[in-house]
Amino acid sequence: MKVLYIVFVLVLILPSCAPTSETLPTQETPNLFLQVTSSPSGSESPIGTILISTPPATTQSSIFSDLGTLFFRDDFDNSLDKNWVWVGEDKDNWSLAALPGSLQINAGSGDVNKGTIRNLLLRPMPAGVIQIETKVTFQPVSNFQFAGIIVYESPTNFVQVGRAYCSGEIPRCVGDGLYMDYYEGGSFVAPNYALPFTQSETVYLQLIRRGNTYTLQTSVDGETWDTRGMTTSDMNPLQIGLVAGQNASSMIPATFDYFEVTLLP
Q: Residue 65 CA to chain centroid, in angstroms?
């Protein structure tokens, strides 16, 4: 586990709150904690298909200088922070005990944009420029399994970044990879960002929101970060959190080590 600390971060020069959770019917699914299955699917529900505005990948020991201030961190040790809310909670398919010190969510068949997502975990969106970070262990094996960070206005307007799988005759599907998807008015907005990623089951994700600009950064060790992709959205984000779903095959676990929010100048 990472110990709670004050994170200071380098200003990335870029151009440049919470509804009640909605309750969805509980889907009865088996408890599959720590079990991964593989079963390809031919579903046509896209998670990400075309390249977003993508700056050249940059690798450096710190994306920002020591100018940020830690706003919130949850290490998922014993209980969830009181300001978390579940959308479509399925108590049988999330756990803080399966791997102590982590939050495990079994990624099921629901989709955010269809209003069928299970165990979408949200909290209020802070004001200003923010950096959201998590460490997720997830091994997607079939269309369109996804786990990562979400910035959320509603089921029809959101940006999500994470580890996912997409294959077939969909433009810019890259198989097991890193994806950045944007939905507006319930429709998938192209282009988006996609990059193959097979280095490990674990990846660190950062999503930086500055005004209407969203930037994805990733790391394999939590120290050296790559700037991956960027998109813009004029939605009014109300919540931020973690998402695992879009699974057209067998349910698989996504394990989140922590969730952290840093305020940037």
A: 24
Give the side-chain half-sphere CA count within 13 A for 240.
22
pTM: 0.78
Inform me whether the pLDDT recorded for 39 exceeds 80.
no
Total count of residues recorded for the chain: 265
Residue 22: inside a domain? no
In this structure, what is the dihedral angle of CA atoms 129, 150, 49, 209, given to the nearest 10 degrees?
A: 0
Residue 192 binned pLDDT confidence (cut-offs 50, 70, 90): confident
pLDDT digits (tens, 9 = 90+) for 101-157: 999 999 999 999 999 999 999 999 999 999 999 999 999 999 999 999 999 999 999
DSSP state of 169: S
How does DSSP assign 2-70, residue by residue?
PPP-----PPP------PPPPP-PPP-----TT------------S--S--B-PPP-EES-SS-TT-EE
Separation between Cα atoms, residue 21 and residue 1, nearest integer Å: 29
- Contact between 182 and 199 under an 8 Å Cβ cutoff? The reply is no
Q: Is residue 29 part of a domain?
A: no
Structural domain contains residue 34: no
235 within 8 A of 182, measured Cβ to Cβ: no
Q: How many domains does the chain have?
A: 1
Residue bearing tokens 């433009």 = 171
| Residue 69 belongs to domain with CATH number | 2.60.120.200
User: Closest Cα to residue 10, out of 67, 52, 56, 78?
Assistant: 67
- Contact at 8 Å (CB) between 24 and 87? yes
* Domain range for 194: 59-203+211-264
